[in-house]
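Lecture notes, unit on binding sites. The following record was shown on slide 14. It pairs a sequence with 2-acetamido-2-deoxy-beta-D-glucopyranose.
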Amino acid sequence: MKFSIALVFVLPLIKAQVPHWGPCPEPAVQPAFNLKQFMGRWFEIARLPAQFEKGQCIETNFTLTTDSSIRVVSSEILNGELRKIEGIGVIEDMKNPAKLGISYSYVLPYSPYWILSTDYVNVAVVYSCTDVLRLFHVDFAWILGRTRTLPDATIMKATEIFVNNNIDVLRMRPSKQQGCDKTL
Ligand SMILES: *[C@@H]1O[C@H](CO)[C@@H](O)[C@H](O)[C@H]1NC(C)=O
């Protein structure tokens, strides 16, 4: 039962990338994470896996709804059209506030959304990993910025955080954030 649900949920993700053997890595997360300071607008600077047919100008706007839950509105421009998707985020364990769960539909379980590191005002390093029967795992990773572009040095430091936590980001690619303000 659990098995088939996991497969239905995970199969579309697997198609998008090569799964990694073994269970999820267990990265360190942002100490004393402050959810309120994290709220507001973040732009996608880079992401894993590389998906070439995706939209551009991807950004997310987080709004606090309670002390431990948030509204998540992500948007992208695909084929000249602005598309929005709304979700709910929660802190699942108050002892680990940097480990959020986000769901974009009430029929889907919360997916991990872990803030590995952030200074709240420039950059955030985010990781999501799902174990499949502890045999392999499927992961996503993002570098987010408060601005549409970040200095190379900042991106390099963010990438190192993944690497230092045994997260394979060789296939991470920059997100397209050019010409966005004109279209919006
Ligand atoms: C983010 O969401 C809040 C609350 O819904 C809204 O007031 C604000 O204008 C939004 N900001 C952006 C950049 O969309």
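Take-home: The beta strands are 20-21, 40-48, 56-64, 69-78, 81-91, 99-103, 111-118, 123-132, 136-145, 173-174.
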